[in-house]
Amino acid sequence: MLSLGIDIGGTKIEAVALDQQGDIVYRQRYATEKSSYPIFFRQLCDVIAQARQDIGPVSIGIGLPGTVEVSNGLIKNSNILAINQQPLHAMLVEFAAQPIAISNDANCFTLSEAIDGAGQGFDTVFGVILGTGCGGGIAIHRQVLDGRNRSAGEWGHNVLPRYTPEQDGPSVVCYCGKTNCTESFISGTGLSQRYNQRYHASLSAMDIMAAVAAGEPHAVEYFDLFQDQLARALASVVNLLDPDVFVIGGGLSNCRPLYQGLEARIGRYTFSNTFFTPIVPAMHGDSSGVRGAAWLGAGATARALC
C-alpha cells in the first residue's frame, strides 16, 4: 500500500504518495479553500478521493497548522481560522472509513527528517522551523512525541530565555497573548519586526540575511544579537531534552551565517561543560512536511492492522 501525505497550508494543499522506499510516486497541489469550514472539508475529501482514484488504496496522514485538542477532538491554534473548533479528524475518519493520522506540521517535518532526512540514524531528533513562525517537533526512535497535552516541541511559545530589555529590546506581546515568546524574536517575522523597529527600516528577514552576508554594519550588528537569542532558545532545549541532533527548516534554514559559530554560542548557555550536538539544515526542504505526513499515516495504519 502506498502512503498518502497531505500537507495543509494557508495558501496551498499538497498531496504526495510515497512507496515503501520513500520515493514520491504521486503529487498534486491545490489552492486552499478556506472561506468556510464546509467548503474546506469538502475540498479535503475530494483530495483524498482523487488520490484513491488515481493510485488505489492508501494510508493517510495529514499535517496542518494547529493541533487536535485532547479533551474534545477539535482543531485549535490554526492560522486557517475556518477549521478552528471543528471536528476535522473525526469527520475525515468517517468519510474515509479508515484510520487517518493528523499532527502539527512541525511534527510532520521532524518525522520526515528523522526517518530518511538529515536526522536519519539519530535516536532523538528536535526539528526546528524558522520561518514565518517558530515551530518545533520531537521524534524519538522515528516516532513523533506528541505529549499528553499535544504540546511537545512548542518551544516557540516559551519565554525567550535570559530576556532583558537592555539587551533584547522592548517587551512584546505574542499573537498567542503571552509576553516575550521566543517566536517573537527568532522567527523570520520576529527578526524583521525587531530589526525594523530598531533601525527604522522596512526589510524582510531574507533582506536582512542578505545584508548580513554583504557585511552591512547594522545587519551584522543585529544578527549577532539574533544568533545569541537563537542560541539561548536552543540551549534551553538541550537542558531539558538534550537531543542527538537539531534539524532546521523554514526560510532561514537556507542562510549560511545562521550556522557559523552557533554551536559555540549554545555551549555558553547549556548546563554541561561540553556541547557536541550537530545542527544541520533539513534534507528534504519544503517537502519535509508532506513526506512526514505520509510516514505518519503509514505508521497509524500499520498499528491499526496489528
Describe the overall structure:
This is ROK family protein. InterPro entries: ATPase_NBD, ROK, ROK_cs. Keywords: Carbohydrate metabolism. It is a single chain. This protein is of the alpha/beta class and 306 residues long. It folds into 2 domains: 2-109 and 286-305, ATPase, nucleotide binding domain (Nucleotidyltransferase, domain 5); 121-282, ATPase, nucleotide binding domain (Nucleotidyltransferase, domain 5, 2-Layer Sandwich), CATH 3.30.420. 39% of the residues lie in helices and 20% in strands. It has 10 helices and 12 strands. It has helices spanning 37-55, 88-96, 105-116, 165-168, 183-186, 188-199, 205-213, 217-240, 262-269, 288-305, and strands at residues 2-8, 12-18, 24-31, 58-64, 67-68, 75-76, 100-104, 124-130, 134-140, 143-144, 245-249, 279-281. The chain has a 5-stranded mixed sheet. Strand 9 (134-140) and strand 10 form a beta hairpin. The longest helix is centred in the C-terminal third of the chain and has 24 residues, at 217-240. The radius of gyration is 20 Å and the shape is globular. The two termini are 15 Å apart. The model has no long low-confidence stretch (mean pLDDT 95).
State the CATH class of the largest domain.
Answer: Alpha Beta
The largest beta-sheet arranges its strands as 3-2-1-4-7
CATH superfamily of the largest domain: ATPase, nucleotide binding domain
Helix content: 25-40%
Structural class: alpha/beta
Keywords: Carbohydrate metabolism
Pfam families: ROK (PF00480)
InterPro entries: ATPase_NBD, ROK, ROK_cs
GO molecular function: hexokinase activity
